[in-house]
Amino acid sequence: MVAGKDVCLRRLSKGDRAREVRFNRLLGNAKVTTERIIESWSEGTVAAAEGRHVLAIQDTSEINFTTTAERRRGLGETAKGNVHGLLLHPMLAVDADDGTCLGLVSGQIWTRKGRRTVPHDRRELSDKESQRWIATALAAKPLLAGAAMVTALGDRESDIFALYASAAERHFHVIARSMHDRKLADDSGLYATSEAMAAVDQRAIVLSARAQRAERVVPLELRFGAVNLARPQSKFLRHLPESLPLTLVDVREVGPQAGTEPLHWRLLTTHPVASAEQAWRIVDWYKQRWLIEQFFRVLKTQGFRLEDSQVATADRLLKLVAIAAKAAVITIQLLQARDGRGQQPIHLAFNANEVATLTALNQQLEAKSKRLKNPYPPDRLAWAAWIIGRLGGWDGYPSSKPPGPITMKRGLEYFHAVAVGWSLRDVCIP
Question: Which fold does the domain 9-325 belong to in CATH?
C-alpha cells in the first residue's frame, strides 16, 4: 500500500499496522466523502476567527503522484505535461494583526477529466478552474461571519473580475495581485495608470526565504490610487456591474541587485485607501501569503511527503489529501507557537483528551533533567509545541536550534500513538 519510507497512510496512522488498515478502509468507505472531510476543516477555525480581522488566503497547488501509463489510478493530467495527479485549492485563515494561522476554512480538491477542447474564453465561468477562487471565497462567508472583518487574499491567479464583484461586501474584502493589464472605465489601461502615479513613500520590507530564494530586505517605492475597472467583454459576465471601483497599490523595488528579479506588486483591493500608511498595510497583509506556501511545503516535502503515496485510486487519494491537509495545518500552528511569541490557546489544535495526554508526557519529559522545564503556561499552544518538539527529537535547550517541520511531524506521530493508548487507560487498566 505504501512503500517503507513513504508517508501518507503509514505516517498518518503513526506506524500502527492495524490502524493503517483501518485508515485504508476509511478512505474506501463510500459514505466518507472528500466534500465532508473538507467541511470538517473549519471545525475549530470558526471559533478561532471570532472577532478578528481574518486574512482568508487562497492558492492552488499540484500534487503529482508516481504513476505509469498502465497505472494512472484515475488521476488526471496536471500542468507539468505527462505527469498525473490532482489539484488542491485550500483557504487558510490567518490573523491579520499577528500572522497566527487559525486553521483551514474551505477549499476544493479535484482531478482533471481529460483535455478541454472548448477555448477558455468561450466557456462559462462555472466551467473554468478559475471558478474555485470565487466558490471558495463564497463558501467562507458564512463560516467567517463571526469575524470582525475578512480579507480574501490571493496571488495573480485570483485577479478575476467576477471575484471582485461577487465576493466583496461591507465586512468581506478582496486583495489580489494583478495579472492582467485591464481596461478601465475611462478607456485607459491599468498599467499605464499605475505608471502615471507619483511615488509617495519608500520603505524596506523583509521577504521570507523560499525554496529557491534566501531571505532578503527589499527597499520599495509606493504608489496608490483609485481605479475603476471596466467589465471584460464576455457574454458570461453581463450580469455583473459594468465597472468596479477598486484601489490600486503599486510597490516596486528600488535599485534591485544584479541577477535578482526585481519585486513589483500591483495589488488590487476593495479596501479603501486614503493614505500611505493604509497602503503599506495592504502590502503587509499581502506578505502573509507566504504562509500558504509553507503549508504546501509541509504537506508535500517537509513532513508528509504526500506525493510518495501509492494509495490505489484517485478517489482515495482525494480523501487522503483532505485528511493530510488538516495535519499539515496543525504542524504549521506548532511551528508558529514554538518560540512562545504567540498567545494562541492550546485548544486551537488539541482536544481535551489530547491535552490530558500532553500533561502526562510533559511530566515525564521535565523529570529527565532539572534543567529542562517547559517554560510556557499549560493553556497555551506554545506549551504543547515544546512537548511535541521534544517527542520529535529536539533536546529542548534554549540555545539549540528550534524544532523544524520534520521534527514537529515526528513528534506528532509519536504523540498521537500515545494519545490513543491514553484514551483507553480507564478501559484497559482495572
Answer: Transposase Inhibitor Protein From Tn5; Chain A, domain 1 (3.90.350)
Give the C-alpha separation, 205 to 70, whole Å: 50
Parse the chain into domains and list their residue ranges.
Answer: 9-325, 338-428
Residue 70's CB: how many other CB atoms inside 10 A? 5
Its pTM stands at: 0.86
Q: Tens digit of pLDDT for each residue in 216-261?
A: 889 999 999 999 999 998 888 888 999 999 999 999 999 888 877 8
Whether 9-325 and 338-428 share one fold: the answer is: no
Per-residue model confidence as pLDDT tens digits over 314-372: 888 888 889 889 889 999 999 999 888 778 899 988 888 889 999 999 998 887 666 78
- Rounded to an integer, what distance in angstroms lies between the CA atom of residue 273 and that of residue 197? 14
List the CATH code of the domain at 338-428: 1.10.740
